[in-house]
Design brief:
Number of strands: 15
Order of helices and strands: EHEHEEEHEEHEHEEHEEHEHEHEHHH
Structural class: alpha/beta
Number of domains: 2
Shape: globular
Largest sheet: 6 strands, parallel
CATH superfamily of the largest domain: Glycogen Phosphorylase B
Strand content: 15-25%
Strand order of the largest sheet: 12-11-10-13-14-15
Helix content: 40-55%
CATH architecture of the largest domain: 3-Layer(aba) Sandwich
Distance between the termini: 20 Å
CATH topology of the largest domain: Rossmann fold
Length: 348
Amino acid sequence: MTSDTQGSVWSYSLELSRALSGHGIRVSLSTFGHALSKEQRRDAARVPRLALFESELPMAEVTNAVTDFTKSHTFLTELEHKLKPDIIQLNEFNFGSLRFKAPVVIVAHSEGSPSTSASIWQMRRELTPILQSADLVIFPTRAALEEAKLAYQLTTPCKVIPYFRRIADYRTASKQRYVFSAGDRNDAAAVMTAIEAAAGELHWPVISMQERGITGGVPSRPGARPLSPRIADQLSKAAIYCQPAPDQRADISVLEGALSRCALVIADVPGLRENWNNCALFVPQNDTEILKRNLQMLIADDKLREEFALRAFERAKEFSPDRCIDDYLDAYQSAWSYKFRPESTERR
């Protein structure tokens, strides 16, 4: 399994590895990006049957505007030769072009948000052959799957498996009167912008943080301020979790907010609607007025806020390892069968 060390894929990889270990499956986790922190090493050491293989390589090297994947690709192909795994799970699209011997499962965590038509078409040209070459592609929501089918004309077997978390990992302290928001390091600016626009007119403070540390810069509005880098601690105390921008870790962070018994105010996008309809208040993208209205509504009404927090928590219990791990085991078996079907001998 591959993982970036900085993004939300890291926590996802540990969570999945822990669930797989409960079924006697050993996971070799190959990491890319910055060296692991002491805290990350400690978290990984707590996962049974998990072995770390740290490359400390970037996903790619950029020289004179040319992207070079040579070192990271060589690291992975040599690792496969050494380990001879039964299944390879790629959590990054960048490695999908490699010709592995083992069956390949790609998890489509995010494809980013290209800003122009030209970049959208470029992304489609790059990702289509990668997704088509996999033996199975996993999507976290049916909305993401349907969007990908239209964009990439997928013929590869696909499966929808939502993100999951263990309820026991989330504690709930006495709820305090503030709004909390967290964004992936790549999308924190968009989240901060939306939050800052609303914070100045709210009666509660708003705390915004980046997934790995405090977001860069000091918010210009007095109502929004960065605080401690301990996101889990903030979620346990915050009465409201706000995720108004559809960033790359929204599916995961909203689940974490729900398990922490926060009332949810989240982006109105198909994937979040699919999982949290009737359990959250939704905000159309870039609609600051509705964002403020929804936050003010929950701030002003204790019973309504507690009702939505309970609804979200009850829904979150459906996304547990016990309910989702069998789907992963089935996906791996399907990928194996697809890879070694009679007519696929020469497909890679």
